[in-house]
Write a structure and sequence with these properties.
Largest sheet: none
Mean pLDDT: 94
Number of strands: 0
Structural class: mainly alpha
Low-confidence stretches: none
Order of helices and strands: HHH
Number of helices: 3
Helix content: 40-55%
């Protein structure tokens, strides 16, 4: 999302990873788009000095990452619906009792 990849590449990636059972949405990682405090912590950590995100050929700020995270949720859901793939299932952390 940050790099402005072609829509066809994003679609292929979302469809492929969904079919593998990998998360493509915040929902599936236990995060929510309306939890901006947590998403800001994630975005700030991703853009901390020394993080590999700074190897991008352009400046990446925490606000850029935050916006990308929110847009990925919406886009992945649209792609999955169009491809008739399942809706994202919210992540439920395992507890010691459930393992």
């Amino acid at each position: 999302m940050l790099e402005g990849a072609p829509a066809s590449d994003v679609r292929e990636f979302v469809e492929f990873t969904t079919r593998l059972g990998l998360p493509t949405t915040l929902t599936e990682t236990g995060l929510r788009t309306d939890d901006t405090d947590t998403l800001r912590v994630v975005a700030d950590a991703a853009t901390a000095p020394g993080e590999t995100i700074h190897a991008m050929p352009f400046e990446v700020r925490g606000e850029d990452v935050l916006a990308a995270l929110v847009s990925v949720e919406r886009l992945a859901r649209r792609i999955r619906a169009a491809a008739k793939l399942p809706e994202p299932v919210p992540h439920v952390p395992r507890t010691k009792e459930s393992t």
